[in-house]
Amino acid sequence: MARVILVNPANSTRGYSIITPRWLFVIAQATPRDLVGDPTVVDEALERFNPNTVHPGDIVGIGITTGNCQAGYRVLREAKAKGATVIMGGIHPTIFPDEPLEMGADAVVTGNGDLVWSKAIRDALDHNLQRQYVGGRVSGETLLKARWDVLDPTQYMFATVQTVAGCPENCSFCSVWVTDGRQARQRLTDKIIEEVNELYGLGFRLIIFADDNFNPATLGRIARETSPGKRKELEQIREERLKFFEEYHQSVPGNMYGFTQMTTEVTSDEEYLSAMYHKMRIRGALIGVESFSEEGLKSANKQWNPTGKKMVETIQKIQEAGIMVLSSIIFGLESDTLQTIRTMRQFALESGSVLAQFPFYHPYPGTKDFLEMMSDKKNLANPNFVPKHKIQISGERFWLKSVNELDVYDHPNISRNDLLAENKKCWDSFYSVREAVKRTRHGRPGRWPMAAKLSYLFMCLAFKRIYSGQGMAADGVQRKGLGILTRAIIKVGVGIYNHFCRAERASVGAPLGRS
Predict the structure, then answer these.
(1) Which of 165, 213, 244, 356 could form a disulfide with 327 if both were Cys (CB 3.0 to 4.6 A apart)?
(2) Residues paired with 63 in a beta bridge
(3) At what angle do helices 117-125 and 22-30 cross, to 10 degrees?
């Protein structure tokens, strides 16, 4: 019997992973066990793919993003050399379906693989494999739960669960709305609850809600929608979300907490924000601050975000509601100067954000910025052409030549050395012991018990060691290894955090949700 081997490629094998690669376990669920048995899952963040385990006739599925496509093509070559049939999917093949085929893949899956993966397997077994399988954007009702019985829970800090797909925004630097669409698609409530409870049984007490936008339909978002039909659709989504929050609250253990990503518009909807904390038990969220300046937000096509002091107040309001903020601030937007970057660093410190990251700007394939920059590049010889961007991309398929963001382009206002130096200053100043301790003395963190404050200090140490210079991303994309010291810091911090969670739950009397 042919076997199915699913591989999550990684730029660095670290022996331990922070976040589960959700696609790996969703496609494991989609694999037809009646034909090929249980799939073998290989996460290269944990262990390197071993081509000697592959036999002729095996089917190897590889999921890639632009950030780890070089590692993915390495796995492709190794698997093909052993006589395997190789099928590639993920965001990168969805945008460039021809590229994996040129690299030697037997087939590609574009869009969601939830429904078409089983057909690809059947066709491969019947020697009738198509070159491309179009998964498209499947409805929320048909999004599969992950298959967690093939997971080793001791190897991951956090597991991922999806509650909604798609994002109604169209930020110029983001490919989510291009690949996953702008229509929010809510998963079935019972499937989400079943999955979360299964993870609870495996020992997880904090999960990542890996949604493109956890608050796709708040009152603020609805108010700025100009289309009556779209506004009605958003109102319905909001009602569905609040109903889901209540059912989740009644059906999931009270000491299961969550982290997610959302927009600042959640502050426009007190009911929604409160339900996130009390019903969903969200205790942290990544928020795309992107920039504190109007020019920066304009270049990111995110003008609805607050700026300057108003952004600082927005972050503080979210944290006062009990949801700690990881502020994601893009470093080196096209409009940035040395002065705006230094001002941004000061705003980040003033905001009191529990965590912050400063990833370098990167024109990812599929984004509005990328498409416009490629058009600029093609038309440079035309004297009558007016380019939309000052940034010029270095060349075709730059992702195959380097994994370093700053190799892709030259910033129009800041030298590479200055970008690197200022970025280091941002990370160093924000995560200095002095600033970290200061954050535990003010606002919501100031009311934490000592165990939570200690856990937070360890978290700051670990976060900087893992993500500095790059930002929080899938483990397969990370270029840094996890040293012994970093893993020890993580272990101690998680232990203290778990103690805090138990203490917090006891302090509120009746548990949130069932016990």
Answers:
(1) 356
(2) 89
(3) 60
- The answer to whether residues 205 and 250 belong to one domain is yes
Q: Report whether 249 contacts 297 (CB < 8 A).
A: no
Query: Which amino acid does the sequence have at 375?
Result: S
pLDDT tens per residue across span 236-287:
999 999 999 999 999 999 999 999 999 999 999 999 999 999 999 999 999 9
Q: How far apart are CA 112 and CA 270, in angstroms?
A: 33
Q: Locate tokens 């195959």: which residue?
A: 400
List the end-to-end C-alpha distance of the chain, in Å, as a whole number: 44
The domain tally of the chain equals 3
b/e burial code for range 427-450 (CB count within 10 A of at least 16 → b) = beebbeeeebeebbeebbbeebee
Q: How many CB atoms lie within 10 A of CB 462?
A: 23
Task: Please identify, among 107, 141, 175, the residue that sits at the C-terminal boundary of a domain.
Answer: 141
| Domain encompassing residue 64 | 4-141
**Domain harbouring 420, CATH code:** 3.80.30.20
Instruction: Please identify, among 93, 116, 141, the residue that sits at the C-terminal boundary of a domain.
Output: 141
The predicted-structure confidence for 276-317, as pLDDT tens digits, reads as follows: 999 999 999 999 999 999 999 999 999 999 999 999 999 999
> For the purposes of burial, counting CB atoms within 10 Å of the CB of 482, is it exposed (0-12), middle (13-18) or buried (19 or more)?
buried
Instruction: Look up the pTM and report it.
Output: 0.92
Identify whether residues 133 and 191 lie together within a single domain: no
Alpha carbon 460 to its chain centroid, in Å, reads: 19
Sequence letter at residue 429:
S
Reduced to 3 states (helix: H, G, I; strand: E, B; else coil), residue 427 is helix
Report residue 111 as tokens.
């869009």
Residues 449 and 420 in one domain: no
User: For residue 181, is it left (φ>0), alpha (ψ between -120 and 50) or beta?
Assistant: left
403 and 450 belong to one structural domain: no
